[in-house]
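task queued by scheduler; priority normal; single chain, no ligands, no partner chains; default sampling; output format set to C-alpha cells
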Amino acid sequence: MSEVSPRQTTLVREFHNNALSQVLFGPHNVNLDRLEHLLGVALNARGNSVSISGTPESAAEAARVLDDLYALASKQGHLESADVDAATRMTEPKASADDLVLRTRKRHIAPRTPTQADYLMALEQCPLVFGCGPAGTGKTYLAVAKAVSMMLRGEVDRIILSRPAVEAGERLGFLPGDLKEKVDPYLRPLYDALHDMLPGDQVMKKLAAGEIEVAPLAFMRGRTLANSFIILDEAQNTSAMQMKMFLTRLGENSRMVITGDLSQTDLPPGTKSGLRDALETLEGIPGVSFVTFTDRDVVRHDLVTRIVRAYDRVERERKAAKGENF
C-alpha cells in the first residue's frame, strides 16, 4: 500500500434525507464521479454519508460543492449535470449567488460561473452594460432573464430586444413573406429566450400589447426608449454609426445591455465593428460596465468549450504569425 501524502486529508459529509441523498449522488453515483473528475478528489459514498479525500483545499472545496448541491436538490427536487458543473465553477459564497437569482414565471435562474455573477451584479447596478465573449456563456440569456424579472416586478414597462439583421443585407426585400416574416429568423434566439421564461400565451399577449418588442436594429432609429429594458444582441455586427445611434436611444428610467462576440463578426472586410468602437470609446465613463466572458464560462455541452478553445488557439497563432497584437 502506498504511503498517504501528508498533504492529504479526509472530510466526511453526512446528509440526513435519504431521497435527497440519492438525488445528490445521482444514478450509480454519477454525480460523485463527475465531481471527482472536476475537483481532483476521491469520493466514497456509504449510506447517506460521503468521505472526501484530497488536499485540504480540494477537500474543503468538494465539501462546499456537495453542500451547495444538496441545498439545490432540496429546492428543485432533481439535479442535472449542468448543475454539478455550475457548482464547481462558483468560487464565491453561496449566499451571494442566492442574492442574484432571477425569478421568472417558468424558472429561477442563478449564475453558474463567477463571471456570470459579476454580470448579474452589473445588470443590477449599472444603466449600461456590455457583455462580451464567446457563444454559450449566457450573455444574452441572462440579460433577457433580468429584463423579464424586472418587468414582472414592475420596475420597467417594456422590454426591447434587438439584433442587426446583417446577413440579410440588401436581399431582405427579396425574402418571402411580410416584414415580420422576413426578419423573424434573425430574431429567433431572442424569442426562444422569452419562451424559456414566460408561458407562451403571456409572450404572445405582451408582444401584441407592445410590452415586449422584438425588432431589427434599423427600427430603433429616431426613438427614445424610456422606462424600458433594452437589449442589443450580436452587437459585433453593428457599424460604429449604428452603435452610436442605438446607445443614444437610452431614455429615463431605462437599462441597456449590449452583447456580442468580437470573434464572430459578419461585417464586410475592413469595416470596424461598432462593438469594438464602443468598448474603446466608452472606457472609463461612469455608469458603464464591461464584463468579459471566456471559454471557462461556457455553460453548454463540454464539447462547445473545447470548440471555442480550439478556434481561439488557431486565431492566436494566426495573429502571432502576422505580428499582430492580441
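post-processing summary
- Confidence is low (pLDDT under 50) at residues 1-5, 91-96.
- Residues 56-76 form the longest helix (21 residues).
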